[in-house]
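Here is an idea for our session: we take a single protein and study its fold together. Which protein we use is up to you, so please pick one and set it down. Once you have written the record down, we can walk along the chain together:
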Amino acid sequence: MDQVLSAAEKLYFRGKYSRVLRMLEPQVFQYRDSYRFYLLLGYSCLFTGDFGGGYSYLRRAEQLSPGDTSANLGLALVSAKRGETEEAIRIWLSILENKGELKEVQRGLKLIRESKEFSQIAMRLEEEKLDRYLRYPRKKKNPWKKVLIVSSVIILGSSVFLYFDPYGWFSKKEILRPEIAGIDFFSASGSTENENAEFVLTEDEVRASTEEILDLMNSFRDNMARREINRLLLSNAAEDIKEKARYLIQYIAEPNFATLKDSFTFEQVSSQPPLYEGCYIAWKGKSANILTKNDEITFDLLVGYHDESLLEGVVKVRLDFPVFLEENRRVEVLAKIVLPEKDQPGSRGFTLDGVSIHKLLE
């Protein structure tokens, strides 16, 4: 496999589906006969909610590799999502006949059996992780290589611990993310007098805040950590503490729909936008006032209006990747909160930089 597809696969396995689409879609002509190219595009479309695009790419993948299990699993899932249950069952049974028992097929058939109406199928597919029904082919690994690596790590790790800390096994909190292991807030100053601070904290509260930031990042709850970093930056904490907090921002990971653990409501963000700068949200709503330019798409998201029951608010969304979007379309947007420049009018507001968009079933 060439470097482009290898890089795209790495992004795919990291859950960066929108980046896979941005990387591969301009290369359609070059890879027009590549099964793996179309499978990558098809699966990435499914994970971003574009089932129409996913169907087109997966159909081409199946044409290039007739009877392929991965492509057919995707096509069956699209059929189920569309309410074409007979077609979905036909594809799943065909896979069973040719490949034997597969857990992805059993889950699909169980989904159909347990759902009395089409709307229940669509709802469950929105709530569940799609990879329960899909199988992207991975390269087979040498099991002995893994055993040797694990054994070497255990031996080396044991030696290091025995040499440096023979008795103090629990003297320090375990650091799961080495990039933050060197951050020592406690050698810095505490709080200062700052009448303009939005949050006035005592030295003990500053210390508790820094501990919470590290705990959250060590638990991979980066969105909550970013909000706490913002609170610290908006407080009367000493500048050297703030500098270390700013340093951590570069390690805040961009989530996808599957990995976003903590989101925030429109009411929370709109009440105090600076506290949520750089945080990520997943909001449902309807699209309006779509404007397509050469390098971006902007539209207004009518937050909470996807079921036309309650309009929570309106926020401008910017997308720097191509997507076919219609007016008044029900969508779910995963995006990063962005504040305008301070010298711009309405600087207390915010906009959204889209990471991924999921078209909800009409």
About this structure: The beta strands are 280-292, 297-303, 313-319, 330-338, 351-359. The domain at 266-359 is CATH 2.40.50.140 (OB fold (Dihydrolipoamide Acetyltransferase, E2P)). The first strand starts at residue 280 and ends at 292.
